[in-house]
Amino acid sequence: MSTAILNRLETPQAKQTRRECPICQGTGWEIVQAAGQASMAKPCICRQATKIVRLRNEVGVPARYDRCELEKFQELNPTLQKAREAAARFIERYPRWSSGLFFTGPAGVGKTHLAVAILKEIFPLRGENLRFCDWRALPAVVPGQPDVWRQLADADLLVLDDFGSGPATADRLEAASFLLHARYNARKLTVLTGGPLRWAATFGRGPRRPGNEKPLSHTERFIRQLDPGTRFRLAEMCRIVPVRGEDYRRLFPRTTSLF
Ligand SMILES: [Zn+2]
């Protein structure tokens, strides 16, 4: 991918730049001709660039996830293989309502990679309203400015990345409750990622069993603070897909495609 083309497409003159693509002159097709063979057309590189820029601008996928695609996902252990299969099935069945997905596990094992790959596969197919949202980066709930949360509630497919990270303030808990109920009632699909999650410790009723003092992950802690109705909705609307493994960013510092 040419960074120069990407950068130019991000300017306000994006459309003009596309028309000026030196390879295809804006047709989106590159004509290639091997010696002694008839010429043929193949999709121009600028199409891919346009898609990446639209994913950044319209869906909100951060630039650091530009390269997260399903085919680049490395199945380094059985849980990663299962997680990839779950993502592939989700894409295949979309938009039929079954249930969303909740990729859970330690940092750096590939959860966000899969969530972004889902958005990427679905994005070019239909003109749907897709949104990527980093939970920690969400603004505080300001009375009279509910727009951000309303937009997230209305998205056809929403990825909530690192759900429950950051402080579990009353505002945040209330916003999570609003968002999950609204999306459940409208039968909208949601894909979440989060820290390690044990079902009983997170969704079970009553106090934690004595002897089970393993510290809670930030995601478990956040969900336990939600009201029981919201917890129930969350458990109902998403299938939990546990992912285990090493932090690949530490194992392979040069790898940028696994998150
Ligand atoms: Zn082109």
Q: Could you name the key traits of this structure?
A:
single chain; 259 residues; Rossmann fold; 2 domains; five-stranded parallel sheet; two-stranded antiparallel sheet; 11 helices; 7 strands; binds zinc ion
Give the helix/strand layout:
Blueprint: H1 3-9, H2 14-19, E1 29-32, E2 40-43, H3 45-59, H4 78-93, E3 100-104, H5 111-122, E4 130-134, H6 147-154, E5 157-161, H7 170-185, E6 189-194, H8 199-203, H9 218-225, H10 228-237, E7 238-242, H11 248-251
Parallel strand pairs: 3-6, 3-7, 4-5, 5-6
Antiparallel strand pairs: 1-2
The chain binds zinc ion (ZN).
Zinc ion is lined by residues 21, 23-24, 44, 46.
Q: Give unreliable regions as ranges.
A: none
The run of helices and strands is: HHEEHHEHEHEHEHHHEH
Q: What distance lies between the first and last C-alpha atoms, to the nearest angstrom?
A: 20 Å
Number of domains: 2
Q: CATH H-level name of the largest domain... which superfamily?
A: P-loop containing nucleotide triphosphate hydrolases
CATH topology of the largest domain: Rossmann fold
Radius of gyration: 21 Å
Helix content: 40-55%
Describe the model.
The protein has helices spanning 3-9, 14-19, 45-59, 78-93, 111-122, 147-154, 170-185, 199-203, 218-225, 228-237, 248-251; strands spanning 29-32, 40-43, 100-104, 130-134, 157-161, 189-194, 238-242. The protein is α/β, with parallel strands linked by helices and 259 residues long. It has 2 domains: 3-50, no CATH class; 60-251, 3-Layer(aba) Sandwich (Rossmann fold). Strands 4-5-6-3-7 form a 5-stranded parallel β-sheet. Helix 7 links the parallel strand 5 (157-161) and strand 6. Helix 4 (78-93) runs parallel beside helix 5 (111-122) and helix 6 packs parallel to helix 7. The radius of gyration is 21 Å and the shape is elongated. The structure holds zinc ion.
